[in-house]
Model the fold of this input.
Amino acid sequence: MLVHRSLTQSEAALLHEELKTTPNILGYTVREILRFRDVLIAEVEGSFAGVCVSKDLLFGWTDIAVLYVLPDYRGKGMGTELYTAAWERARERRRHIYTLSRNPQVIHMMERFGMKVSGAIWSAPLAYHLHMNCHMTSLYRMTEAIRKARLMHGSGPMVGGAKRFER
Done:
């Protein structure tokens, strides 16, 4: 079951620790995670199983920024369900959508949804560049980027997908 709500303290702490294990997401502090407002949570029998976080950016853009399914729940289509729900939510709000990922399943979804996909970060919308300039000034993310550098190097190219809608 998908629920639109903020993460609880324990879910945020768990997500924070889980994100440390993946080279695909630099991560967030627990405090940052607790401030997310556009959050879709997958629950299985009342337990936290996965999450998709979207962030509204300038100029009508929404970044589907975090898609994470806990290891015990993978392989059941939950990631696709979360991403699709986040996509539809942004589209219904008439937002343009951007996603950056190196995860092959996410890249496949970007292509399936008709996003313009590119490995050139400069093709990202201006709103994303402005957001990332602030986002990456976090000491936590800089430290994680250094810690995860070797893992990121071997995990495939980073690909961005953009979809612009008529407003």
Notes: The mean pLDDT is 94. The radius of gyration is 15 Å. The helical segments are 9-19, 30-35, 78-92, 104-112, 126-135, 139-153.
